[in-house]
Amino acid sequence: MVLDQSTAVYQRILKNCTHDGSNPMAGPIQTSLEKTGPDHLSSLKCLSDSSGDSIIYTLLPPVFKGLNTTFKEFLILTGQKAIHSKYDGIIELKVGARNSCFLLMEQDQEISFPDEDPKLRYLNTLTSGLGDVLYTNQHADINIVVDQRIFPCHKVILAAMSPYFDAMFTHDMRESRDGIVTLHDIDADIFDNILHFMYTGKDVVCEENAEKMFRAASLMQIPCLQESCAAFLLSQISHDNSIGIWKIAKAHNCKKLSDKAWQTILENFQMVSASEDFASLDLDELLCIIQDDSLISPSEEFVCDVALDWVAAEESRKDCLCQLIPALRLPLVSSDYLFHMIDSHTEVQGDPACRKVIQEAMKYHACFSKRQNFTSSRCVRRLHSKMDDVLVVIGGLLSTTPRYQTTKEVLCYSFQQRRWYYLPSLPYDPGYEFATCVHNNSLYVSGGWLKLTGMAEYKSHKNEWKVCETLTNGRCGHVMVAVSNSIFVLGGRDGRAPAMTNIEEFNINTEKWSMAGDLLLGVRSTSACAIGERIFIFGGITETDKDTMSVQCFDARHHNTSIIGDLPFTCRLTRTVSLDSSVYVMAPDGRMLEFCDPSLSIISHTQSKRRSRCDSSSSVDSMADPPSPTSTTVTLGNVLCRIPNFSQHHFEVIQHKGEILLVGGKTPDNTILKNIMAINIDSKPEVVVEDILEMPSARWCFGCVKTSIKRDYLNNQIP
């Protein structure tokens, strides 16, 4: 078998070599080649050379073709070539084989160098010459003094590489005239390395000097050295040095390095928080870290502990505590931890801002029925939390023509992961016009055309549905509101009464229903919300099939009802959302009404008789003598805005981080929607509305709530 002359390319790596920059290393080179398979050379190792230096060649591509795969051949190549130190990159090796019974050798070959690129040859020559003048001090025209060491240099080289020196030598500064420049805040060894880089371009950055080199390169405005240092530091970032590198990168406006260091801090917070660098953070830096949504922490209690330990580390930091408290997500810590922290740091109770934050956290822990109304960022879970804040879409209609296509599907959108997931489906098909609400992260569904008396609970801590005790009076087109430890269903229709008045109460602790009272005005297709212990019902369709503008108020503790005033317009199919203590009513024509708590000036023109809990009379009986809706003349609320080109109904609304999200619905031309719009009511000078995402499928007449679910349960992603 004949081996044709082939060409192989190798990477030359010098180990333990020393030279003065000009003397070449030369001598015979004996190399072993070991062949283990077709078209593949497993190793190429230099055995020796005349100088005793170790030279290792590593093969890049396979080169030998046609070798018999049955045999392993050991080949000896010899050659002699002067190898100059400047050739530290790719070389070319032409090889042939000899002394083999299986291979024929035509001629000996030698190591040779490829033709250099002219530009590269020029640069090599230039930097070699510049290195010589640096080493010999020839033609030096300026002395740089660093730590009492004198470095003879050349103005033109320094000015060409550094705008810092260029400005110094251009503007006739005294240092330039005297021929001596003294540099402060830099080590002599670091400056020596910088000179080598500026004159020869050699890599001078290592683990021991990288941070100092980066600072000095930034000070002297040497961009290419800054980039070299940044690239090295980027490869060396760990939890031990991430804070130091982040500070350096931030100080010198190196975004890529700063972003990587910042990411390392957030992803390794538990270890980073135990480092010495963390203890030396200033207040603003600490605030940046603990407020970041991307922070990965075992718990919010751990974040609080770290912040409090930082304060305790130095006496002077005690005054910082009141600035740190508003940055902590106290609503998401356990109630035991919260009250222990308050007792242990009584000084925060005297600060108005801290007191407000603590009150917010206490309300969050106490008000299970209103947790989803909190707009503060302190109530929002981090991106890597064990729990996700989710928008849940329940059932609904997928078609617009009878027989309507219903679904038991339950979908949720994770705000942290920005993905849609399936949750367990409803245990039965409620049809449409059912009602939904949330209490302590559990979801409740009641009524609906296909299951008028149905009631089901999704237990978020178990990721499962439970069928509850049935309603006393079945209904659809009603509303459901949670107050304290009870859930109330109000109004609706049952196929007999076009607009019901009776109110039922579901006790969450006993899981039993009871009659709670009556509306003064029977309504369906209305909306409602709770402020404190009062439930407000806005407009709706009356038993005469007319729209009303009346606002009714049901006191959940005293079980009585009053009509407290009128909306600015009659309405049906409105949707209501609470942002903290403010309430917004959204009409199908795009008008948005802001409704404020009228508890300080309740105008109660008519009050219903309190109903016994055991009274189970029907809604038809209770409608015997309803009050006239015109008996009130007080207009409540004001129209905040009107969404342009908006006309849709059977949509839903929730709030997230202070924005109102308007979900799905149907237009007058029977187009079913799947878009989700965000309404920013705080934007100036006008309310901003924009589409932000879409549901996986269009639907209308569905349920929609916001809650929090364990991330472990979000494992069935929707493609």
TrEMBL record:
Residues 611-631 are annotated as: Disordered. Residues 615-625 have a biased composition (Low complexity). InterPro entries: BACK, BTB/POZ_dom, Kelch-typ_b-propeller, Kelch_1, SKP1/BTB/POZ_sf. Residues 140-207 form the BTB domain. Gene3D superfamilies: 1.25.40.420, Kelch-type beta propeller, Potassium Channel Kv1.1, Chain A. Keywords: Kelch repeat, Repeat. PROSITE patterns: BTB. Pfam families: BACK, BTB, Kelch_KLHDC2_KLHL20_DRC7. This is BTB domain-containing protein.
